[in-house]
Amino acid sequence: MTDNKEQDTEIHPLKSEEGVSPASLTKKGVCLGSSGLSHLSSWRTAAFFLSVFLCLISIFAFSFIIPCPVRPVSQRTWINTYGDSSTYTFLAVTDANNDKVMDVIFAFRGSKGCLNVSCSDAGFSSPCSFLVAVTGTNGSVLWERPLSQELLWVQCGIEKLGGLEAPGCLLFHSQNLTAIDSRSGVTLWQNNNTLGLKQPALKVPDLDGDEVGDVVLIGAAGDETKVVIVSGRTGQQIGIDADPGLSDVLGHVIHVTSSGSYYILFKKDSAVYGYALKNIVAMAIKTPGSNIKLQQDPKWEEMTNSTSGSVPVYNSGSVQHLLKMGNQGKTPENLLLVTGHWVELTDGQSLRSLWRVNITKVISEPVFGNFNKDGVPDVVIEDEIGNGTKKVVILDGSSGAVLWEVDMVSSSTSPKTSTVNTTDYRSAFLFWGEIPGEANATVSLNQQHFLYLLHPSYPKILLELNNSTESIAAFKAVLFEKSRHAGYMLLTGPTEQSETGSVSLAKRKLKEDVAHSRVVRLSQEEGFSDQEIRDSFFRLRYSSST
C-alpha cells in the first residue's frame, strides 16, 4: 500500500489530495510556482502603471503645453463700405489665408485703398484701381494691390500659377498681363502684350517642359484673332503669336475629348469651330522636332475640314453662350449652346444633339444646379417673355424637360442666378426678381430687387431672403466652410468709370436670412405653416460637392 502511494506521488508530483485546497498544499510546503513568475508579475504591474503615467503626461501635454489650432470664428454677416468709388462686376472666392474658410477678392476704383494707400503712393494717377482680398470670416483686409486705372479683367482660381501650390489670379491692365499670388497679392510675373487679350485664360498642359501647366490667351489684332501661349511658371511667351485664320471671335473655351485631346473652341456669331491645341502650338513653335506631347482625337480628325483645319462644332444658329456641362466627372464634358431661339445640349465627343428647348430670349448666362438626384447637372435659364417679365426655368440636364418654372418681374440690372449644393444631392437656388403682385408700386418705382431661395423639397414655396434698391455689380452663393456655413456675397455700387458713389461688399449667412425670411406660396397646395417651412429650410445642410 505504501509503495503504491509513493509511486502515485512520483508520477503526479503536483496532484492534490481530494478535498484539500491549493492554499493548504502551499502551507504544507507544496510549490505552486517558481520565484521567476512572481518577479514577472511585478514587472507587469510596473509596466501597466508606467503606461498609464505616460498616457496622462501625453494628455496634459496636448491639453496645456501644445496649443490646439484655433478655429476662426465667422461672423454671420458683415459689410464693408467704400465711399466716392465705383466697382467692377468681378467677384472671386478662394481661401486666401489658408484658414479653411473661403475669402473674397474684388476690385474697385477710387483715390485711396482700404489700407490708406493712395494711388500717388503707388505711382499712379488718381483715381486708380485696387484689387483687394478680404477674409470671409469678418471682412478684414488681407492684402491690397493698387493698379493702373485701366483694369480690363481679372481671373482667379488658376492652378499652379507661378509654380505655386495655391491657385493664383491673372490681371490684364494697361497692356500688362500680370500673375499674382492670391494668398499675398505679390506679383509672380508680368508680360507686356499689345494685343487686346480676352477672357477666359485657358489652362493647358505643360508645353515648355518646366513641369508647370501653361496658359493660352486669345487676343485680337484688329479683326484678326491671335493665340498667345505663355509659361505658367514665368509668364514668358512660348513661341510666337499663332494665327488660326479666324475673325470676329466672340468667345472661346478649352475642351478635352474622350481620348484626352485638347481643342480650343472659338465662338463666332453664327457658329462654333474647334482647333486642335497640337496644331495651334505647331503654329507658335516652329522648331522642328519639338518634344511636346499633345495628340489629336481620331474621331474629331475625321470631322476636320482639310482646308481650314477646323472642326465644325456647331453651325445651326447665332450663338450667344457656349458652356461646358460636366456629367459626374466624366470626360468629355457636354456642350451647352444658347442661340437666339433655343437652348441645346450637344454631346462633347460625337457633337450630336442630345436635346433642344425653344426659348424667347435668354437674358443672362445659364447656370447649373441639381434639382433632382440623377447626378446630371440641371440648367437654370432666365427667359425674357416681354412686358418687363421673365420666366425662370429649370431644365432637366438629361432630357431638357421643364422641371420647374415661375414668372417674375424682370430688371435689366438683376444679377444671374447662383446655386449652392446641399447634402441631399440637390441644390439650393438663389435668384433675383419680383413675384407679380408681391410688391407695391412704390417698390417697383424704386427698382427694388428681391432675392428668393428655392429648394426642390418645396417646389411650390419660395423664401424671400433680401431686397435691395442698390445697383448690384456681382452676386455669388458661397459655401464658406466645408459642409457648413453657406451664405452669399453681394457687391453693390456704380460700375461706370464716369460715376462714383458708395461701394459696398456684404456677406450674408443663409441660415440668418432664412430665419427672418418671408414665405411666398406659389400655390396653396402646401399644408405647412410659414414657421414650419422656415424651420425646414433652416435645417438644410450644405456640401461642397453633390
Question: Mind explaining what this structure looks like?
Answer:
With 546 residues, the protein is mainly beta. The protein has eight helices and 31 strands. The chain has a domain of 64 residues. Strand 1 and strand 2 form a beta hairpin. The protein starts with a helix and ends in an 8-residue tail after the last helix. The N terminus is likely disordered.
Going across the major beta sheet, what is the strand order?
A: 4-3-2-1-30-29-28
Strand elements, count = 31
* Main sheet specs: 7 strands, antiparallel
Task: Return the average pLDDT rounded to an integer.
Answer: 85
Spans of 5+ residues with little confidence (pLDDT < 50)? 1-37, 439-446
Strand content: 35-45%
Structural class comes to mainly beta
Measured on Cα atoms, how large is the radius of gyration? 34 Å
Distance between the termini: 89 Å
